[in-house]
Design goal:
The chain has 389 residues and is α/β, with parallel strands linked by helices. It contains 14 helices and 15 strands. Strands 1, 2, 3, 4, 5, 6, 7, 8 and 9 form a nine-stranded mixed sheet that branches. A six-stranded mixed sheet has the order 14-13-10-11-12-15, with helices on both faces. Helix 9 links the parallel strand 13 and strand 14. Bound molecules: adenosine-5'-triphosphate and magnesium ion.
Amino acid sequence: MKEIILLKDGEIALKGLNRSSFEDLLIKNVKRKLAPMGKWTYWKAQSTIYCTPEEPMDLEEALERVKKVFGVAAYCRALVTEKSYDALAAAAPDYLRETLLAARTFKVVAKRSDKSFPMQSPEICRELGGLLLSHFPHLRVDVEQPEVTVMAEIRERGAYLHAGQQPGAGGIPVGSSGRAALLISGGIDSPVAGWMMAKRGIELSAIHFESPPYTSERARQKVFSLIEKLTPWCGRIRCYVVPFTRIQEQIKEGCPEEYFTIIMRRFMMRIADTLARRAKMGALITGESVGQVASQTMLALGCTDIVTRLPVFRPVIGMDKLEIVEIARRIDTYETSILPYEDCCTVFTPRHPRTRPVLETVEEIENRLDVASLCEEAVSATVTHWFNP
Ligand code: ATP
Ligand code: MG
């Protein structure tokens, strides 16, 4: 018995002329995921990618891997048979036994792209449906909302039989939308924000600001674990760790307490802007959500945005905390995010932060500091780490 993995692309199919390059990128991303398991061959036809193992392979593990590839709308394992109805009919009852025993209703869908095949699709459906009913008499046919859809595909290279296709990660392939820098803290929101933008095809780098000795080695390790948790979805991630202590101390010394947070955030944006531009990234990503905390009011966001001319993507901007937490749990970052280590943002938190900062006042206060050289100093002391899936 030979089995392969089928991946259905979703939105890619809508991409018109670019479709082929999207599909090639998707195959490249899938290959990267499956290559460590052994040798595979790939081909694509009709919005489907056929992944054939060329040596014995644990297909369940392979499915676990492709589940996290953006651009895959649905996936399943499928049986390969010789291209004849008799071969399909001989294999189907055994191959589908477990799935069909657990279901009450089903239907058969046939697809025939090899027009030289002697039976037409409706005939294949009828015959195969009848055969399965005779083997599993508890079943009923439901063409509207079947619990199980049995697919018989007659393609150029062979016939394929499968059932129980699962929804994939969705989105579009990572790398198809360029690269952007995720400002990542150890919190719940920023990893989710990064994941959401990767789902839209963006390849991520990460930027993390730390303030030793106020922030600990464990806080940094926590951020590294979060990045590691993103890699199965996002691929290789480069993380820039920016020393932020001196800037924070200078702000504390030179600026009124209620402006700490907003000025600190402007420094973060400026430094992120420089790092992103140097590496030819096209946008910044943050985990901010309107009204969640004092630094995330509309006016405060306005004061931070103005220091960068890169677009700032905030995919969780309109989401409730609970909605963000739901995604964090799904992508398995939540348990790490709630570990209690301090972040540089929490080190010098003002008691009464300005929720309606006035830009001119912020700029005036900030100009007491040597902004340009502080930023330059931080950028040149930045170190990078690579994280592989
Ligand atoms: P998160 O859960 O992502 O930490 P938050 O609700 O705690 O978000 P803030 O601490 O105000 O909010 O941070 C807002 C955003 O600023 C974060 O989502 C992140 O993108 C960025 N940010 C905060 N702290 C850091 C840091 N130490 N390094 C890099 N980016 C940071
Ligand atoms: Mg935070």
